[in-house]
Amino acid sequence: MSIGAEHFSERSPLYRLHAEARLGRIGDSCIATAHGDQDERVTAARCALLDLSNLPRVGFRGVASAACLQAQGFVLPGAPNQALAQADGSAVLRLSQNEYLLLGSLLDAGARVRQQEQDWQFDGSPNYLLPRQDSHAWLLLSGRHGSEVMAKLCGVDLRAEAFPPGSVAQTSAARVNVIVANLPQGELPGLHILCDRASAHYFWGALLDAMQEFDGHPVGIDALP
């Protein structure tokens, strides 16, 4: 039996735009696995947009946050505005001296990151939970034309020579505040973009409009390596 977003209590803010997509279960929600019947890997390598909003993500802030995350086995970036992929496919973004954002992995449906949020309790130490599941949408702009797409919307130079893998920018794109992290999926270039959840529908459309020049399209996670 096919599944639909309406079968789940947790839905992407973009779920109505994925009505024609093939969906798969991911944890307690669903995600687009494909947007068509053709192999989407060629599109992903050229210019593609994925909605990862149903993958878990969470933030922590405080002078004790680094030690707490390291105790849980996370390897942390060495400086603010850097990101580091973890061995399990998750990622840690360091947004300031003492603020971190964890992005869940497709390999475990984000279970490790979700568990960090569920297990957190305030014990008096300066390590404060920053829920991000309902505040931010999470998009992935993949392919070799990603920086050219973003150049139409954003004043920050996101070309690889200026914004190498592991870089993070906190900026504005299409007049929406965004966090952009250069985190390739293996050999596949990838810009992970987190934006205000309430603006996700508008921002998705702005990205698709900017992608037209490069024959860019939405794809599902089956297109990823």
TrEMBL record:
SUPFAM superfamilies: Folate-binding domain. It holds the Pfam family GCV_T. Residues 91-224 form the GCVT N-terminal domain. InterPro entries: GCVT_N, TrmE/GcvT-like. This is Sarcosine oxidase, gamma subunit. It comes from Ectopseudomonas oleovorans (Pseudomonas oleovorans).
